[in-house]
Amino acid sequence: MGETIFSKIIRKEIPAKIVYENEDVLAFRDINPQAPVHILVIPKKLEIENTTQIKGSEHAELLGKLFDAVNEIARAEGISEKGFRVVINSGPESGQDVLHLHLHILGGRKMHWPPG
Ligand code: DGP
Question: Cα of 98 to ligand 1 centre, how many Å?
């Protein structure tokens, strides 16, 4: 995986509204929010582009940490009880723009189905 805009956010070279950080995970508000709560959760050290490169045998622990972060953030943002959506765009047809694995947390409004 090459350098992306998220690499610069991880290194704090460009500003972001960070809401959660630990050794392995960083979460920050999306610059172009699609819901009242729109937060991106990313691995800091794992250099993979999207879900196609996930291997259960290697990445299980990190995936657990990403979802621990999702749940902690959802509680902190007050959307845990009402519900929220977690989206991972993966590949060109999904609309993925940034080639660094990231989970979108979307909440604070009623979500629609099917998604666009
Ligand atoms: P995706 O389309 O799934 O690759 O989502 C990428 C998201 O990243 C998109 O919703 C906009 C967001 N984004 C892109 N550049 C920046 C940035 O510099 N800062 C922040 N906070 N978000 C960004």
Answer: 7
